[in-house]
Amino acid sequence: MDETYMKNAYDKIIACENEIKKAIIGQESLIRQVLLSIFADGNVLLEGVPGLGKTQLVKTIAKVLSIEFSRIQFTPDLMPADVTGTNLIVKKENQNVFQFEKGPIFANLVLADEINRATPKTQSALLEAMQEKTVTVGKETYHLPQPFMVLATQNPIENEGTYPLPEAQLDRFLFKLLVDFPTLEELNQIVKLTVSKGTPDIKPQITGEEIIEIRSAIGEIPIADSVLEYASKIVMSTHRESEHAKKVTKDYIVTGASPRAAQAMIKTARVRAVMEGRFNVSFEDIKAVALPALRHRIITNFEALSNGITPDEILLQMIEEIPMI
Amino acid sequence: MKEKQIIQYIKKARTRIFTHRLIHLGAKGVTLGALFALVLQLVAFIIPFYYVNVASICSIAIGFVAFILYGMVTRLSMKQAALICDSKGLKERVITAYENIDKTDHISLAQRNDALATIKKTPLKTILPFQVDKQKLLFLLGSVCLVAILAFVPTKTKDYAEKEHKQKVVAQKEIKKLKDAKKELEKISDKDKETKKVLADVKEALKETKKELKEAKNKEDVKKATKRLSYKMDQAIEKTKNKDVAKALNDIKNVLDNSSSKEKEKLIEMAKKAEELKDKLNNELSDKEKKELSEEMKDLAKALDDEELAKLAQQLGENTLSQEEMEQLQASLGEASQQLANQAQEAGSMSSSSGSQMASAEGNEGSVGMGNGSGQSGNSGAQGNGQGAGAGQGQGQGGGMGNNNGAGQGGTGWNYGSNQGKEDDSSAGTNGDMVTIPNKQSNDNLKGNKNNTGSSYQTQSNSGLSWTGNKVSFGTVYSQYKNNAYKKVSSSYYPASMQDLVKIYFEGLNQ
Q1: Residue among A280, A283, A286 with most chain B CBs within 10 A, to mutate
Q2: Would an 8 Å CB–CB cutoff place B91 in contact with chain A?
Q3: B211: which strand partners?
Q4: Between A1, A224, A325, which is nearest B84 by CB?
Q5: Structural domain spans, chain B
Q6: Residue numbers in B near A230 (CB within 8 A)
Q7: Given this model, what pLDDT does residue B396 score?
Q8: Distance from C-alpha of B101 to C-alpha of B40, rounded to nearest angstrom
Q9: pLDDT-wise least confident of A104-118, A249-263, B454-468
Q10: Per-domain residue ranges for chain A?
Q11: What span, in angstroms and rounded, lies between the C-alpha atoms of B24 and B20?
């Protein structure tokens, strides 16, 4: 994996990004962050009101990456077996035997649509798959196909009949991305694109194998000690009992981010560096990925809630106070 | 090769940052020092502080040095320098390349190449320019200039501080001599009971004088203290029967009095120089002479008490005088020599009261302080003020009280003689107290108690101020003084009551 290979990897990632942009109008930052997560081997939680193109985005990504895609619509009556699969009794050579029937999770890219509508039991069925890339049914453990990633969506405004994701599951998501409402210009383009007869022709830009190779190459991108320390400092600053804790942390954060947050930041920062045409991680990369990597990993207190202070506001203020040098 | 280039780049950056930082820190140090100096200067307007200028300079220098030292101690490491370069838009390429300088894998090599390419595009001059913060620079210059201006602003407090300092210096010198004297006293061996008592008295006197000197507020206090000591020493010498001890005490006394004679000699010398300078001013001066004149005038300025005269002399020393000012100086030099003569005579009077030569005379007291000077009229019609500083002769006559007639002759020396006399009265045998007639106005320590011993002695100094001059009668001097005083009184604004006072004073003198 020399310089030329890295440049090719860069070209491919950028090609994927540009192809996705054909079908998704606006949301450039969102597209970039989803790609960061995919090439960093992570799962993404997309949060936004209905109709902003979350599902469309995931579908487009699946096309561009030319990988196996499956969609699970989470509902309150969805059972874990509906996600992971189940053992069925089948007749085989005049004998009744159990045979595992794979669920929709056995795909490269799984869209867990409206994940917060399912019960915690069903939500938990995804835990092992997201972290270990395996599924255990009965005594058997099945490996999920590679690459594997879960892109889940949730609606922040409809709280009735929903089950907020437990912290343990939230931590499994590399990024939590907020899908913003498009601007007027973007909306105009979206309307033009969707109401016309012709839909954009999305072509696959990369294969699953190539994704795995690029992930491996990106993992070798060097990172300076000071940059690594900066990422760690950010995570430490989210803990109110830490010596690095800032005032805003002590005021509003109850529980800080886990070490997975630091890992997530480093992994995604590496991808961002490659996407920026560099072979090293910068402070800027860390700052860029800090918010999506941390916002779902901290728990704010009632004071923050009552004052309407979002985790993003807390994190932004906190990051500004952490010196880079 | 590429590794070396990266390291070289970081080294250059570090040197550049270091230099830049030193300049900034130095400027910051000077600014803070100047601010502190400014505070000192302002304080010196209210509280007398003689060393304010020295302290101001020191504070600026200390500020500068301290900050420079801090800058040198906290010199950046290579990593820090690399990080600073990266913060200027290199996006951590340099630090990453530096940290992975030994790695040879493909990604590290690619990263190094990328870093090198970026470095070549961004020279250090562009990312680390030597910038001068104009506001800070102006603030620095402003504060330093303000300090300099304030340092040269004359104020009464500063004058007072200077006088106080001079006083302290004199007092310290005297105290040092006292300490030496005490040491000498310790050396005296072979002490009998009487000698021990005398020595104890002398020690006590030294102690008292030391205390007085420490508390002295002006020259007069110092003079008084030394005079009293001198008198006590004389008494001690007289009391002691041991010749060796008397000799030792006399030696100590000579040492204690030595400075006044030195001071006197110096003043005589200065007065002579003033006269010579005045002569020179009448003639054309060569460059060499001008240079000499310049130096001499600077010395003169230091020695003069009169501020305006000193300032004038100082200006001449710096060759900045105009023709008009030259004429003014010429006239003033006469006054200078007069003033110096006065000072010398004053010193002479001190010396005379504690002179080493002692002679006794029946029913007669007196001291001779001699001051004599010659005056020359100025060139360009300027009034020559050179009156002869006359020989001061004090004569006292025994008869119940110490009498001091300051029969001044030829000028200002007439009442500087101090007297040490013992009244001669054979009917009783008690010793008389010291009678001193200090300078013109003060007679607060006049202690002429009547005694019955009937003996008196006179002291005479041979080292008084005595350079050649004309002997002038009292009447001539009196009339000159009176006329000058009347003229000044009538030409300037004085309250009528004060004018009368002057007239009454001179009329009283003539009676």
Answers
A1: A280
A2: yes
A3: none
A4: A325
A5: 2-154, 203-343, 355-473, 474-511
A6: none
A7: 37
A8: 54
A9: B454-468
A10: 3-195+204-213, 222-321
A11: 6
CA atoms of B451 and B277, how far apart (whole Å): 51
pLDDT of residue B503: 82
Phi first, then psi: what are they for A71, rounded to 5°?
-120, 135
Distance CA(B109)–CA(B96), nearest Å, equals 11
Distance between CA atoms of residues A114 and A155, nearest Å: 7
At B268 the pLDDT is 67
Q: Which uninterrupted H or E stretch holds B80? A: helix B78-85
β pairing state of B358-360 and B457-459: antiparallel
The position carrying tokens 């008490």 is B305
User: Could you tell me which of A43, A112, A42 has the C-alpha nearest to residue A71?
Assistant: A112
Q: Are A212 and A191 in contact (CB under 8 A)?
A: no
Residue pair A25/A265 in contact by the 8 Å Cβ criterion: no
- DSSP labels for A147-215? S-EEEEEE-SS--TT--PPPHHHHHHEEEEEE-PPPPHHHHHHHHHHHHSS----------HHHHHHHH
* Spacing of C-alpha A184 from chain mean position: 27
A24/B260: higher pLDDT? A24
The class level of CATH for A222-321 reads mainly alpha
Cα gap B11→B342, rounded to integer Å: 72
Give yes or no for residue B347 having a pLDDT over 50: no
Q: Tokens 């560099």 sit at which residue?
A: A278
CA distance A189 to A193: 6
- Residues B116 and B6 sit within 8 Å (Cβ to Cβ): yes
Q: Provide the b/e sequence for A75-108 (b: ≥16 CB within 10 Å).
A: eeebebebbbbbeeeeeeeeeeeeebebbbbbbb
Contact assessment for residue A222 and residue A32, using Cβ atoms and an 8 Å cutoff: no
Pairwise CA distance, residues B108 & A280, whole Å:
9
B88-103 average pLDDT score:
90
- Considering the domain A3-195+204-213, what is its CATH architecture? 3-Layer(aba) Sandwich (3.40)
Environment class of residue B376 by beta-carbon count within 10 Å: exposed (0-12), middle (13-18) or buried (19+)? middle
How many whole angstroms separate alpha carbon A316 and alpha carbon B62?
Answer: 43
Q: A280–B93: do the CB atoms touch at under 8 Å?
A: yes
Strands (DSSP E) found in chain A: 43-47, 69-73, 85-92, 95-102, 109-113, 134-137, 140-143, 149-154, 173-178, 253-255, 299-300
C-beta atoms of A1 and B114 within 8 A: no
Average pLDDT taken over every residue of chain B: 69
Q: What's the length of chain B?
A: 511
ipTM (interface predicted TM): 0.84
The per-residue pLDDT for B338 is 61
- Cβ of A279 within 8 Å of Cβ of B114? The answer is yes
Q: Is B368 helix (H, G, I), strand (E, B) or coil?
A: strand
User: Inter-chain contact B107–A220, Cβ cutoff 8 Å?
Assistant: yes
Which residues have C-beta within 8 Å of that of residue A156, sequence separation ≥ 6?
A: A47, A48, A49
Q: How far is B65 from chain A (nearest CA, A)?
A: 27
Residues of A in contact with B79 (CB under 8 A): 226
Give the global pTM.
Answer: 0.60
Same topology for domains A3-195+204-213 and A222-321, yes or no?
no
Helices first, then strands: H and E counts in chain B: 16, 5
Written as six digits, the tokens of A39 are 């090439």
Q: Is B301 helix (H, G, I), strand (E, B) or coil?
A: helix
Q: How far apart are the first and last CA of chain B?
A: 109
Q: Are A114 and A47 in contact (CB under 8 A)?
A: no
Q: In this complex, do A325 and B115 lie within 8 Å of one another by their Cβ atoms?
A: no
Q: Are B110 and A2 a contacting pair at CB < 8 A?
A: yes
- Determine the Cα–Cα distance for residues A269 and A288; give it in Å rounded to an integer: 8
Is it the case that residue A91 has pLDDT exceeding 70? yes
